[in-house]
Each structure stands twice: as structure tokens, then as C-alpha cells.
Amino acid sequence: MVRFNGVNHLAMATGDMDKTIRFWRDLLGMRLVAGLGQPGYRHYFFEISKNDLIAFFEWPGVKPVPEKDHGEPVTGPYIFDHVSFGVETEDDLWEMKDKLSAAGFWVSDVIDHGFIHSIYAFDPNGIPIEFSHNVEGIDVRSSPRMGDSAPSATTREGAEPRFERWPQVKSSTPVRQRRVYPGAGSELFHGIKK
């Protein structure tokens, strides 16, 4: 079974990489660990934690999105609401609230969601972000909880994966046939140009 070790990276877009670096690296404290680019294109990666990154593509003409309250219902095509970053302690949550406020960014009050305490804000690109701290003594990962008053039949099947719902792999790719092709960034580490 595949075991996940976090979010390798989230990929967002910006029209102003310098403003993005100032916010994510200099205000939030996420290290800038990789950068690819050429005229008209940049792709930079910031370290969230030892396993997780957030990346930004910079393309000419990208404009900040209009701010939409986190979780506010929408209609029509839509793929992303907000991203939440975990912080280690409740004090870290309050420190982040104070930093955002001091820097002139709108930031919500601290909200109690039962299993997490959260604050909400927007980055300079209009990306809705949340910062969350797990409530001490409550772990939904080890004791899942559902409060949906009208859960679907699929939801009622429970927390554990139901792998039998999908076709099983009949033939794995043999090791001798596995190929990895150079892509953008490989030249930073292997000297190979795409």
C-alpha cells in the first residue's frame, strides 16, 4: 500500500514573485529552497516543514484573485477554497496573528472548530490561507468524528479506505522498464537540460 508522507508541494500562481517572496519567506518564515526560471516564467519553492513545500509559478499577467471568505459557498467552476498550515503551539497561532496584523494584513479572530483553533488571512495574491493548531487532547486522526446530519451512503462506509472499490493492479511496471525523464529543475541537480 502507498504511504503518504505529507504534501510534497502545493502549486499556486503569482504575477509578482518579489511580493510573494516577501510574504512567504520574510513574513511567514518559510525558507526559499529552490527556484527555476527563465524570461516569462519562474517556479519557486518555499519550505513549510521537513516534508512539505508550497510553490509558486510566476507568469506575466497573473493578477491577485478577489478575496472570498474561507468556506463561503460558490457556484460554477471552482477548484480551490483555502489552504491551512498547521502550527506547533497555541502561542505560535497568536504570534502569527500578531505578525500578520502588524504587517497590515487582514487577519480573523481565533476561531474554535472543536478539534483545531484557526485564524484566517489572505496572501498578497488573494490566496485564502488558514493557520491551525490542534486542540490538546483531541486527535481526529486517531478518533475520526463525523457531524454531518445527512451523510451520503459513501460517507457512512467509514474512515478507512475501501480499496476494493477500484480495479486492482494486474501487472506492476517491472524495475528494468522504469524510466525517469528529465524535466524542469533537473539541471539544478544533474546538469541535464530539458
Alpha-beta content class = alpha/beta
Please bin the fraction of helical residues.
Answer: 10-25%
- At the first level of CATH, what is the class of the domain at 82-141? Alpha Beta
Average predicted confidence as pLDDT: 92
Residues in β-strands, percent: 15-25%
The fold-level CATH name of the domain at 82-141 is 2,3-Dihydroxybiphenyl 1,2-Dioxygenase, domain 1
End-to-end Cα distance: 32 Å
CATH architectural name of the domain at 82-141? Roll
Report Rg.
20 Å
Strand order of the largest sheet: 1-4-3-2
Report on the biggest sheet: 4 strands, mixed
Explain what this protein looks like in three dimensions.
With 194 residues, this protein is of the alpha/beta class. Among the domains are: 55 residues, Roll (2,3-Dihydroxybiphenyl 1,2-Dioxygenase, domain 1), CATH 3.10.180.10; 60 residues, 2,3-Dihydroxybiphenyl 1,2-Dioxygenase, domain 1 (Roll). 17% of the residues lie in helices and 24% in strands. It is built from four helices and eight strands, in the order E-H-E-E-E-E-H-E-E-E-H-H. The strands form two sheets. The chain has a four-stranded mixed beta sheet, with helices on one face. The protein has a four-stranded mixed beta sheet with strand order 5-8-7-6, covered by helices on one side. Strand 6 and strand 7 form a beta hairpin. The protein is globular and about 50 Å long. It starts with 8 loop residues before the first strand and ends with a helix.
